[in-house]
Amino acid sequence: MEIFETFFNEIIGFLGISNAFEILQTGDYGKFRTFDGVVSLIYPIIPLLLILELILGLIYKKPDTKVYKVNFLIYVFNRFIGRFIAIAMVTICIGLFQSYAPFQTEMTWYWFIYGYIVWELAHFLYHYWGHKVRLFWCLHSTHHAPENMNLSVTHAHFFLEAPYADIIRTTVCILLGIQPELLFLIMFIDGTYGAFIHIGENVIKDARFGPLNKIILTPSHHRVHHARNPLYMDTNFCNLLNIWDHAFGTYQEEKKEIEIEYGITREMDSGNFLDVYFGEFAALFKDVSRAPGIKNKIMYVFMPPGWSHTGDHKTSKITRAEYFQNNPAYNRAIKVQQPGPINNNIVK
C-alpha cells in the first residue's frame, strides 16, 4: 500500500494539484482568492496542457512517443537524483551575497519591473554560457536533444543544470538588490512561462502571437532557440522579456520559409536515455583523452562546442558565417535586426 501511496503522491505532485486538493478538502473555498490559492490554480496549467498536447498528438497521429518516453525517464531520474539541490543552491546564494547588495528592493510594481529585467539578464548569462562553454553545454544539451518540441521538453534537463543555473541567476539578482520574496515571485512567474514556451505545434501551430511577437519572447522564438538550422543557432536566450537578446544581438525571429529542425548537431539516438543524458559528457571525455598536452585538454572543457585542437573548428560561429556567405540576403537581415557585440562572436 505504501508503494501505491507514493505513486499517487508523485502523480498529484506532477500534476501540481496537491495544494488545490488540500484547499478543496478544507471546504474553505475563499482561500482560492489568496495568493497561495491563485498559485495552486496556476500550477496545474502546464501539466494539463502537456496531457492535452499528447492527446492531440495521438489524434493527429503525431504523438512524438520517442520524445515523450525519454523525457519522462529524465523526469523520473531527476526526481530521485537532484530533487533538492537547486533549492539548496538558491538558499546558500541568498545567505552568502545578500549583505553585499548596495540596496534592497521592495514589493512594489516598479521594483518588480526592475527585478524582472535583472532576472532576465541573469537568465541570459546562464543560458548563453550554457551554449558557449563545452562543460556547461554538457549540462544543457539534454534539454536540446529532443527532435520535436512539446511540453515534455520542459522536464528534459541534466540534474546538475538547475543548481548551475540558480547559482548564477540567484547570485546576480541578490547582488543587484532583489529581495528574496520578490525573487521567488519572479522565479514562479518565469518558471511557469518558461514551461509554456515549449508548447508544441499540436496545440498551437503558429506561436508568434501577432503583435506580442515584437514585445515578448513567444513560443515561436523559443522554437527557433531549439533549432539546429544555421540561421537559428544560438539565438533567443531570454525567457519572457527578450530585451537582452536585442541588446546583445542574439535576437532571431522565425522565418516561415525555413522549417525548424530540432535537436543538436552531434549524431545521436534521441530515443536512447543514456545517449540523451550522458552523450555529451562521453563525447567531451573522448576529446579530452585524445587531445595532446594539458593546454588542449583544458581548452576542450572551456572552449565552445565544436572547437578542435586541430583547427578544424565546427562552432556555430563558423557554421553561421558559412551559411550567411551562401545566403547573403539573410546575412543582411541579421545585421539590420541584430545589432550588438555578442552577435559578432557567436560560438557554440
UniProtKB/TrEMBL annotation:
Its main location: membrane. GO terms for biological process: lipid biosynthetic process; membrane lipid metabolic process. It is a multi-pass membrane protein. GO terms for cellular component: endomembrane system; membrane. Residues 113-250 form the Fatty acid hydroxylase domain. It is found in: Endomembrane system. Keywords: Lipid metabolism, Membrane, Oxidoreductase, Transmembrane, Transmembrane helix. This is Sterol desaturase/sphingolipid hydroxylase, fatty acid hydroxylase superfamily. It comes from Maribacter stanieri.
